[in-house]
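Hey, resending since the last one bounced:
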Amino acid sequence: MQTFSKQTRFEHSLEKLFQWHEKPEAFALLTPPWTPIRLQKTEGPGGIVPGTVHDLKIGLLRIPWKAKHTEYQKNSLFTDEQISGPFQTFIHRHEFESSAPSESILRDSISYQTHLGIPLPLIQSELNRVFTYRHKKTQICLDRLDTFKGPSGKILVSGGTGFIGVQLRLALAQLGHEVYNLTRNPVHANDIHWNWEKKEIGQLPQPLKCVIHLAGENIASDIWNEKLKNAISRSRVEGTKFLADSLRLQNAVPRTFLCASAIGIYGDRDEEILEEPSLPGTSFLANLGVKWEQQTEKLQDLETRICNLRFGMVLDSRGGALSKMFWPFVMGLGGRLGHGKQYMSFIGLEDVINSILFLMTQPGAKGPFNLVSPSPITNSDFTKVLAKVLKRPTFLHLPEKALRLTLGEMADELFLCSQRVVPSRLLNAGYQFLHPDLESILRYSLGREQ
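The structure tokens again:
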């Protein structure tokens, strides 16, 4: 039998640490972004109570794993054991102890036996990778309970099934909010049907503390043509207009309305440092950004506090640009785009969630906010940092002509466009970044901590 153990001290009480692990959202929040885990079904009493059985699918290969909770001592420990799966034996003990009145220790102890042929060093390395991430995520979530505490309320989220929306809804639920998901395909109890194209929407909850509008057609789903550009534009402009009109018609206008936007509103600006007061550009995405943000003005006369969230490139291995870049770089095929001097503005997913929670709880926050890291870098430097984190060479590059020949207008707006954007208003309001630079974002999201 082999063993593994990971221990971390938290500046939070034992009771708070244990209660956090009892919350139904904890399992999903602790899942590493590079290892998809799908809960198929749960049998028994549920939660971490002994007798609860979880059927899971692990990783890209969807490996079956069935685990059963076998021990539970309040504020002390709980245990889960593999019933069937990739190991001969796998027993995971979550142990908790108090080290001071407001300090506690979490110890994850694992005893396991492998099938023949599985290299032991590889398993130990992966367990260390996973539990380093899990303990850091636990710290982030516990800190959120302190930083963003306040009266709970009803929160409506559109785009809640995207990789930002899913993590946002989990974070909101852990803070005690009643979260409703606006979706075309309602499945769960708090799902509300809507279809902006058909002008359909269900009964909205009241009173609404906040609406967080993230829905919109993926701008990188395919090579642009006029039909796709029209769909991208309509999903944002008409979709936002319909939601704003629906909130008014149903007398469900929220106290706060946080609406997605994008730094594409600034256009291609070379080395110019771009802040929220900077003038918009003249490109397709810039014009779209202006029209998009104008739709939120429909709620201003009703004393709703409105924030326009100008997202940069959101980095997380669950989706978005990083998930598309990962495998080419792992295979040594990554490289700079064009001359590589164009600036890239990005932000880690954890800081996206925290900045949204921050703006939701700041009564004086209004208008546009750049949701980007305070450290934009050139495409050439971005390439070098990603290659360094993945320990891969990077000697290839895609010439501008090749990109334009393949992608047309999309190449200039998404890959060759230079946007040196900084989050001035967010910083001035007092927001503190978890991961202020590219390397820290990548190491956390990809599980490549030093």
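The domain at 154-446 is CATH 3.40.50.720 (Rossmann fold).

Sorry for the duplicate.
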